[in-house]
Structures are given as C-alpha cells and as structure tokens.
TrEMBL record, chain A:
Transmembrane segments: none
Pathway in which this enzyme or protein is active: Alkaloid degradation; nicotine degradation
Keyword annotations: 2Fe-2S, Iron, Iron-sulfur, Metal-binding, Oxidoreductase
Gene Ontology MF annotations: 2 iron, 2 sulfur cluster binding; metal ion binding; oxidoreductase activity
Name of the protein: (2Fe-2S)-binding protein
Automatic annotation (TrEMBL), chain B:
Alphabetized NCBIfam families for the sequence: CO_dehy_Mo_lg (TIGR02416)
Name of the protein in its database record: Carbon-monoxide dehydrogenase large subunit
GO MF: anaerobic carbon-monoxide dehydrogenase activity; copper ion binding; iron ion binding; molybdenum ion binding
Alphabetical keyword list: Molybdenum, Oxidoreductase
InterPro entries membership: Ald_Oxase/Xan_DH_a/b, Ald_Oxase/Xan_DH_a/b_sf, Ald_Oxase/xanthine_DH-like, AldOxase/xan_DH_MoCoBD1, AldOxase/xan_DH_MoCoBD2, AldOxase/xan_DH_Mopterin-bd_sf, CO_Mo_DH_lsu
Aldehyde oxidase/xanthine dehydrogenase a/b hammerhead domain boundaries: 35-144
Keyword Protein biosynthesis belongs to the record: no
Names of required cofactors: Mo-molybdopterin cytosine dinucleotide
Organism of derivation: Cryobacterium ruanii
Pfam families named among the record's database cross-references: Ald_Xan_dh_C, MoCoBD_1, MoCoBD_2
Region (Disordered): 1-29
Listed PANTHER family: ALDEHYDE OXIDASE 1-RELATED, XANTHINE DEHYDROGENASE
Length: 166, 797
C-alpha cells in the first residue's frame, strides 16, 4: 500500500507492506535511526516520536496509521545547527549516558513543554513515566527538562551560572 | 567549549573537591546522541546485508527428536536455515564459555532451558526471517526439568548435562575461602549468634538496547569483520579466533555505540556466532538483533544465590565472625564471566567493611534448566551478593542486640590506621576511612531526626523504615598473578600520539556503554600533559585501531585502563622533556614541568609547549640517542592490586499498611571512589546504580514456574523502575585516594548497584519491625510485603 506523511517538515510517500510498524518504517525505510526500539511491548519508550505533536510509541503504531499525519523524530528537534533547548538541557545536566532512551525522552519533554512551559518536577516525572532509562536514575533527566523550561530560548539566553573557557 | 563550574554536591567534603583534569565538563559524546546520531548495532547497514532470526525452544528440558526445515527453506526470501546438525558438521555446535564449560550454539541433542537456540534463519529482511521461523517444524520429547536449585543435587534429579562425559549429577563446583576451623571456634564461644537464610533472586541487567551483531565475512581474503554489542572487543576477537579457526589477525571486532551493558554484553552469545556462520554460508553480511524477550530469557542473568548466613558477636556489639554456605544457581551451562580462579567471583569479600576475627564461606554451584550467565548487572563479580549478605546480617544482629544499626556499624568498622587491611578471606583492602563517610551520610540524612519521626509515626500506626548499608567494593580486575579469563591476563593497553600540531589521539582497550570514556579519558590525558580535553580524541571499540585489553566490566575501566592512560601520558611527558631539551640546547634534568610546558629551571620564560615539542619531534631538530622522531608512547598496565571504593547509603521508606506498597521517600548516598575525574559523570553513574538497587529490592525478578517456563520474559512482567518509583537522589562524597593507582582513582560504575539493595531492604524490614519481621527476601513487592505483615514470609521461586 502507499502512504504519505510529513516527517520533520518533509513530505514523504512510500510503498509499504501494510503490517510494517512505524518504528521500522522510520528506521529502515527512511533511515532515520535516531528513533530506537527496545521492547516490542510498548513498555520502554525508546521508540517515542511525536505524531501531530503528541508523543506516541512508534512500535505500537502501524506506519499505515501515520498516513496523512505529521511526525517529528529526534532528527527534527534541532533547527539546523541550533539545538532545541531540550537537547541543550540534556547536555548541560547530564540527562543521558548511553543515549539509547534519550531521543524518546527528549521528544516527550518537547511535547510536555509545548503544553506546559513551567512544569513541576512531579509533572515532569509523570510525563516521562511511560519510558525507561537504565543509566541515569531519572533525576538528571528531570533537571535537563527543567533546564529547558528555564531557558526557552536556549543557551544564548543564559550566561550567569557558567564559566566559559576558550 | 563550555566548561561548567563543578557543582559542589557536598560542601562538607571541603578542599578534597578538586577533580583531576577539568572537573565537571560536558561530555564529548553528547552532541551526537542528542541529535539522534549515535551509531548502535541496529543502525548498521552494509551493502547486500541479510537478516537473521533465531528459533527458540518453547520448553525447558526436552530431547530434540527432529527438525524439518523444508517449508522454511522454500520461503521465497529465505537464503539459509541452519540447525544444530549443520553446526556439528562444521565443529561449531558447541562453544567454550567464560567459565571453562561449553555451551550449545544450537541444540543438537537436548534442550536445556526455555528460550534456548534451536535454529537460525537467514532471510532478505527482518520480517521474512521471523515469518520463516513459523515454518520450521520441531518435535520435542519433553523431560522433567530441574527448576529449584535446592533440588538440583537430589538423588534421582534429572541430569541436565549428559553431554559432558561421565556426568551423573548437576554439580558444577565447590569452592571455599577463609579458615573453617578458626571460624567455627569463634562461633562456638561467641555470646550471640544469629542465622538467616537470605536469597538474592535471579535478576537481569536488561539494557535498553538488546544484544546484536552484524557479521561480514570476506571469502576472498578470509577476513571477518564483526560488529557486536560487546563490552570486551579484544577478548571477543581472541575467543572468536579460538572457536572459529579464523586466524586472529584476520578478525576485526567493532563495538559501536552501545545502548547500555551492565554486564549483559560481556559474554559471547550463540546469536553472535550464528551471524558469523550465516555470513560464511551466504557470502553476505548478516545482521542479528535479538528482541526483548530473547534478551530477558536467554542472555546473561545475574545473582540467583541462596545464602545461609551466620554472624557471631559479643553481647555488647563487637562483631567477631561471619560464615556462610551458598548454593549458586548457574543455569544450564556454566557461562559466568569471571576470573578463572574464582568460580564464585569475588563473593569472598563478604566480610564487608568490618574488622573480624574469623570468616569462612563455601559456595556450591549447580546446573538447573534455566538460562546461563550469572555475573552481570553491575555486580563487580558478585560483590553485590556479598554486600547484600553482610549488610543484611549486620542489621539482623542489630535487631537481636537491640542496637541502632548505624551505631553497630560504626563500632565495628576497620579503622583508618589498619589500612592496607588484610581481611580473613585473602583480600588486601588498599585504603579506606569509613567513619567520616558514615557520619557524613547520617548528617545529610538528619539521622537522629529521622529516628524521632519514625518513633512518632509508629505510635500512630504508620510504617516508616530507615535502612543503612555500608559497602566496600573490590574493583579493577586484576593483577595477572591472580587473575585471568580463559588464560588471558586482565591488563589493558593504551597508546597516545601527539600529532605535529599538538592535537592528540589516545587509543584504549576498554569500551564505553554510556560511561563517557571519550570525555573522562581525555580529561586524564589533559591533566597529565596539559593539552585541553577538546584537543584529545579517544578511540575505542575497534580491535583494528586499539591496543589489546580485556574491556569494560567489573568497574575496571578507570582502575585499569585509566591507569594505563595516565601512565602513557606521563611517558609522553617524559619523552617531551628530552625533545624540549634538544630544542632548547640544554640538559633534560635542567627542565621543569608546568601543566602543558617544559621550561628551564630558574628561567620560566624559556621553555617549549607540548605543541611546540610535538612539532619539534616530527621536525628537524637533532634528537638525542634513543629518542624516536615522534611524540608517541604505549603502555600495558597490569594493576598491582584491585581498588576498594566504599560508601554509606541511607534509605527512607514509607509502607502503606493497607496495601504493602513501598514508597522510597529519600535516598542518601555518600560514595568514596578516591580521586574524582568528572564529578558530573560520577554522580550519573551513582544515580543509575541506585535505581538498579531500588528496582531489584522492590520489583525486578526473573521467576520460573514448575515446568521451567520463564515468567519474566518481557517488560510487562520484568518490572523496571520508572521516574515515579525513585526519589530525587541526595549524593555526597568523601575522597580516599587509592595508594597504588597512578592518579588515586577507584572504580565507581557499580558501587551503587552493589550498595543500594541492602539499604532498601533494611529500610523495608525496619518499617515492618512492629510486625516482628526480621527478614524478607527481595523483591519487596506489595504482595510480598503484605504477606510479611501477616507473618508469612517466603523465599522467591
């Protein structure tokens, strides 16, 4: 069957098997490998992408169900060379170690901040509670998302608490 | 580049908070990860690449009667179906394990655990490979399984390993440490002896990325390129050479970015070997990546120790001796990854942080019809089990003596002046200063205030628990005089090259799974030779590009490879002195070092920077006799001893009296890992390990039913903490440098996984004290806690 969708601002049309999962379509057909898969049972959230701005687990969405929709993957978070504040926050606050859950966590964070620009720590924890991280223990992910909330324009807006070396 | 100020996580530690290198520095690997440009095993696509899938046994114990692959082979997209008999013809049906046993690559005679590998399909795409698995017809003759390790040695128990010649039972090994007669004598005359059976259930490291491989065999030059999720690329290359007969110089193992390891990616799994066979058979690259159920059901589990603990003390609280008998369930094949001489790993550090008169342990390993493995999940070669045993036993003793558990620990610590300390089971603790660490954790927790709060709550019928754990780790395996894996000494190499323009590349033999080696190893070099970390590239994970070494597990990267890197940098610095002397037309002994530069003693304005010296080395300066025209060096580091990080953890829980639900309200962790390289990364490692500990203590378990069916085969059944189950960690630190490590650093990657489970369980048991509960086994799920409140405790299956 033929499907069309907008991915990271680009319209794509492809011929696919009807049973293909969105995560495999994104990874194997479009070669956007920043979206990961980790469990097959909708538990881990490494496959989270945004569908029309809402986080979805792309291992539990058929590619066909995304027909006509708008998808954002981690590759679409940055605006060219300028990182999304969420991406900056994860680097500033050590919100990642192995990096495998990170794309899904950041996309959920982006969706959260789009709807709630000043979330409480518990609201952040609730937002990411459908996703698993084995490395960080979550506290630094919470801090990373708080950093992004405090710096909606990104790093350029904050200079106070940093020493900058050449 | 941006360097953040070190966040003072612990003002009480004072001026020790001066990390090596450039301190709290953002990670060099992060820019690619936050852009989704990490490069993990499943991201690799080679031209013409095929996909493999494994057919797995549905039962735990069964004779293989027949396999019919006709229909699968007729699938239009299938290129090959490989069975055990095909491998037998190639001499590859069995492979050596890391514990001198053998493991079936594909079943030839008998299925020995549920999920065991039965056949391998190679197809054009991953969906077709999975489809074809459904087309393979297998007939099994089901046998009674051995599920409970306690029954493995019963007369008449089914013999699992009838493949081993002369084998008539399920016994693997007996091992002991310490002095039995001395220990028994101390127990016989002690005022107080308490006993407790303590079970550390089977758990699984379950990294977010499962295991996988892409094998690419070139039939023309006989060269194998193997991309693998491995924590130990060099050891794997050697083992693949031994198993496959492909000469070692024709094998290149590449470990790309790894999505978490925790010990799960140390062993060589049948899937890796099958990908290689698939590539040889089809002449094309073959990718195999397991799914989550395959990962949980067939790859290396952890723990599964049944421990009979006994502790002896005087009535005023002086701990005298510890002894234990352990039954170790190793599953169907003894595939534990550990140094050869230690079949129970480093379990014999079960004497913990206490000054004892005597200690003795025995460990018996048995086969069961469960997945093989045993050392995984950040356990430091079974220090996890050891620390859990001693820290539970000390708490049980405190209850018996009606003493505060913090006070009992403080009274029995090995004293600062006793280090280096020889314990009663053969370890020499390199350094330690336990009391300040314990006191700091109590201060951060507000310990006395917490006890007051608990007393008030108890009077109101509320269940609050405070749990303490004080652990001593032993990491950085290990000295070649004592330690090897399959005959390979546990050393690590490092090569450092300073390019003519003063930029550097350091090549290391260990492999990050998220630990941030590209950052911390650059920081170590930066500190030693004064080149900024951003000008130093760290190369790892490719056997063609890095020196030999045993890899990353057991918290050994910083203790072993970190030492190699510091020493190779010092070697380069010393070589630079000779070259600088030649450039300045003076004698090397007349030069003095300041970070990044050699200068003439008494005349600091005359000197050469490392960049100038590098250009000089590669230039036309006349070099002294014996000095090559480069600024490179290499080192292989054999550690003289292990390092002994330690820490004090305090956990506060609230238990719902109606449901048995445990809420971890606070967790205070004070760690001492010696010299700190990047405090941000250390804090991250500790947070992750604490989460593991909460997971194991409260929810994680791989159980089996009576037929040997694995009940933890997906993330719907094997529960892992989310952000809702863990608190905002409170961390602090003290610094007691290792006296033998070049920069005084100790490993830290597993400290929190080792140290935190007893803190959580001690807190839960403390909360349940009003019910008379003295011990309960993990996991402290609501159902099991509620049962304990009703006076029914039971060991996990």
């Amino acid at each position: 069957m033929q499907i069309s969708m907008t991915i990271n601002g680009t319209d794509v049309t492809r011929e696919i098997e009807p049973r293909v999962l969105l995560v495999h379509f994104i990874r194997d057909d479009l070669r956007l490998t920043g979206t990961h898969w980790g469990c097959d049972t909708t538990n881990c959230g490494t496959c989270v992408v945004l569908m029309d701005g809402q986080p979805v687990k792309s291992c539990t969405v058929l590619a066909a169900m995304a027909d006509g929709h708008t998808i954002t993957t981690v590759e679409g978070l940055a605006n060219g060379a300028t990182l999304d504040p969420v991406q900056q926050g994860f680097m500033e606050e050590h919100g990642l170690q192995c990096g495998f859950c990170t794309p899904g966590m950041m996309l959920t964070a982006r969706a959260l901040l789009d709807h709630n620009p000043h979330p409480e720590p518990l609201e952040i924890r609730e937002a990411i509670s459908g996703q698993i991280c084995r490395c960080t223990g979550y506290a630094t992910i919470v801090r990373s998302i708080q950093w992004a909330a405090e710096h909606p324009a990104g790093a350029a807006a904050q200079t106070t608490e940093k020493e900058v070396h050449a | 580049m941006t360097i953040l100020e070190d966040r003072p996580s612990n003002p009480a530690a004072g001026d020790h908070d001066r990390p090596i290198g450039h301190g709290r520095m953002q990670r060099k690997e992060d820019p690619r990860f936050v852009r989704g440009k990490g490069h993990y095993i499943d991201d690799i696509v080679l031209p013409g690449m095929l996909h493999g899938a494994i057919l797995r046994a549905p039962v735990a114990h069964a004779r293989l009667v027949s396999i019919d692959t006709t229909e699968a082979l007729a699938h239009p997209k299938v290129l090959a179906v490989i069975t055990g008999s095909d491998l037998q013809a190639l001499g590859l049906a069995w492979a050596p394990t890391l514990s001198m046993d053998v493991q079936a690559v594909l079943v030839t005679d008998k299925v020995r655990f549920q999920g065991q590998e039965v056949a391998f399909v190679v197809a054009e795409d991953r969906y077709a490979a999975r489809d074809a698995l459904e087309l393979i017809e297998v007939e099994y003759d089901v046998l009674p399984p051995v599920v409970d390790a306690r029954k493995a040695m019963d007369p008449g128990a089914p013999v699992i390993r009838d493949d081993l010649e002369g084998r008539t039972d399920n016994h693997i090994f007996d091992w002991e440490a310490g002095n039995k007669a001395e220990t028994d004598a101390v127990f016989a005359s002690a005022d107080v002896v308490v006993k407790q059976e303590i079970v550390y259930p089977r758990v699984h490291p379950a990294p977010m990325e499962t295991c996988g491989a892409v094998a690419d065999f070139d039939p023309i030059d006989g060269r194998l390129t193997l991309y693998e999720t491995t924590q130990a690329p060099h050891a794997h290359r050697t083992l693949f050479a031994m198993v496959s007969g492909i000469p070692e110089h024709k094998i290149r193992v590449v470990s790309p970015d790894i999505g978490g390891g925790f010990g799960n990616k140390v062993g060589i799994y049948p899937g890796y070997i099958l990908a290689v066979v698939g590539s040889i058979v089809t002449g094309k690259p073959v990718k195999w990546v397991e799914d989550r159920s395959e990962n949980l059901m067939s790859t290396s589990f952890a723990r599964d120790y049944i421990m009979q603990g006994e502790i002896a003390a005087t009535k005023d609280g002086k701990i005298l001796a510890l002894r234990t008998n352990v039954l170790a369930d190793h599953g169907a094949f003894n595939a534990t990854a550990q140094p050869t001489k230690y079949p129970a790993g480093f379990f014999h550090i079960f004497t913990g942080s206490y000054d004892l008169a005597a200690a003795h342990c025995t460990v018996t390993g048995v086969y069961t019809n469960k997945a093989p493995g045993g050392v995984a999940y950040a356990c430091s070669f079974r220090v996890t089990e050891a620390v859990y045993l001693v820290e539970r036993m000390v708490d049980i003793l405190a209850r018996k003596l009606d003493m505060d558990p913090a006070e009992l620990r403080l009274r029995n610590f090995i004293k600062k002046e006793q280090f280096p300390y020889a314990n009663k089971t053969g370890w020499e603790y390199d350094s330690g200063d336990y009391e300040p660490t314990m006191r700091l954790s109590m201060k951060m927790a507000g310990y006395d205030e917490l006890r007051r709060e608990q007393k008030e709550k108890r009077e109101r019928g509320e269940l609050m628990g405070i749990g303490i754990s004080f652990f001593t780790e032993t990491v950085g395996a290990g000295p070649r005089k004592d330690m090897d894996i399959l005959g390979l000494g546990m050393a690590d190499g490092a090569e450092l090259r300073i390019h003519p323009t003063g930029k550097a590349v350091v090549r290391i033999s260990v492999q990050s799974q998220g630990q941030g080696h590209e950052t911390t190893f650059a920081q170590i070099v930066a500190e030693e030779i004064g080149i900024p970390p951003e000008d130093i590239d760290v190369v790892h994970g490719d056997t063609d590009q890095t020196p030999f070494g045993l890899g990353t597990y057991g918290s050994r990267s910083t203790p072993v490879s970190g030492a190699a890197v510091a020493l190779v940098a010092r070697k380069v610095r010393e070589k630079a002195r000779f070259i600088a002397a030649a450039m300045l037309e003076t004698r090397p002994e007349d030069l003095e070092w300041e970070k990044g530069r050699w200068f003439v003693k008494g005349d600091p304005s005359v000197g050469k920077t490392m960049a100038e010296i590098a250009m000089g080395a590669h230039g036309t300066v006349a070099l002294p006799e014996g000095i090559d025209g480069n600024l490179d060096a290499e080192v292989t580091y054999d550690p003289p001893n292990l390092t002994f990080p330690f820490g004090a953890y305090i956990c506060v829980v609230d238990v719902d009296p109606g449901t048995g639900h445990v809420k971890v309200r606070r967790f205070i962790a004070v760690d001492d890992c010696g010299t700190r390289i990047n405090p941000m990364i250390i804090e991250g490692q500790i947070h992750g390990g604490l989460t593991d500990g909460v997971g194991m203590a409260l929810m994680e378990i791989i159980e089996f039913d009576a037929e040997g069916n694995c009940l933890g085969g997906s993330f719907m059944d094997y529960l892992i903490p989310t952000a809702m189950e863990v608190p905002d960690w409170e961390t602090g630190f003290t610094v007691t440098p290792s006296p033998h490590h070049p920069i005084g650093a100790k490993g830290v990657g597993e400290s929190a996984t080792v140290g935190s489970p007893p803190a959580v369980v001690n807190a839960v048991v403390d909360a349940l004290a009003p019910f008379g509960v003295v011990h309960m086994d993990m996991p402290c799920t609501p159902a099991r806690v509620w049962e304990a409140m009703q006076g029914r405790t039971r060991p996990p299956v």
